[in-house]
Amino acid sequence: MNRNDDVELPADWDDDSDVGAERRRGRRAALIAFGLVAVLVIGVGIVVGSYLNGLRNSYEKRSVVDITRAEGERPEAEEGTGQNILLLGSDKRSEEAAAAEGVTGQRSDVMMLVHIADDGESVYITSFPRDLYVDIPGHGKDRINAALAFGGPSLAVTTVEDYTGVPIDHVALIDFEGIEGLVDTLGGVDVQVPTDFEADGIEYTAGTQSMDGREALVFVRQRKQFADGDFQRNRNQQAVLKGIADKLISADTLTDPRRLADTIEEVSPYLTTDEGLTAGEMTKLGLSLRSIRGDDLYFLSVPHGGPTTTSGGASVVATDEEAMDVLREALRTDDMGTYYAQYAGAY
């Protein structure tokens, strides 16, 4: 029936009887109820729209950087091979803390390459030792975490792209204050502690330990308490990231709008991303990963050699090019599942 077709009214529509009047009252009540429902739906839509807009406005408080490169300089992207996101944790302190500690600039004490499989069913997080000795474009060979100090997230992306041979789709950098605030906003996270130790007056006990923001932050910065130093610190950083991810993707967090809003509001001022990682792109990415759970996150370390000393006397971590080529091929072809099965825990 078209909208302009004549509508045949029921025979009793103009009935003046008591029954007809009752029916008309019933119809008016139904129409009023329908109208109220319509207003309610529209109102909810407005509220939801305002809420999403609020989240978007909070997210826009982040800083943005340009990670584009001249044509031909970036590794070629191949269709159907997933996405690569570089996560950086900066040791940037507040001005007061930096002055007290005599620290200038910032270096990426946390550097992880997140590979999202093309089918959206699994995510592989590969950590880089902060002292890995690699080529940094325009600066020669140096520790990989120096790229952030030399040229910010853009140079860190360029360095990792050149080293891994795959394009980086997005980058996200968060400083220590943001990590602490994120964990506190989530109400703490459960972290797997490798052994008993003490740091900054905090006791850590082997096994699963619930941590607030400060406890998690102190935990990810420790290395001298462990025989393998930075390598165990990488594993500890992964443990905290897994705790955060488990909390973020848990049902109670995803279905709690207030907590989600608070999380975005808390973290955004400490977050730097590439210009392309907009609120819309984040939403799209989140939807593509809606079936991911904690067991679908796989953690590993980039292949590397042992500790060594440069000609200038600096202590660094050597690369392992032969083993690295295997990882490069797995990333390039989106075959990280096979790689993980063979090399998980090897480094």
Automatic annotation (TrEMBL):
It holds the Pfam family LytR_cpsA_psr. Keywords: Membrane, Transmembrane, Transmembrane helix. Belongs to the LytR/CpsA/Psr (LCP) family. Residues 107-248 form the Cell envelope-related transcriptional attenuator domain. The chain crosses the membrane at residues 29-52. It comes from Brachybacterium paraconglomeratum. It comes from the Bacteria. The lineage of its organism: Bacteria, Bacillati, Actinomycetota, Actinomycetes, Micrococcales. The keyword Transmembrane applies. This is LytR family transcriptional regulator.
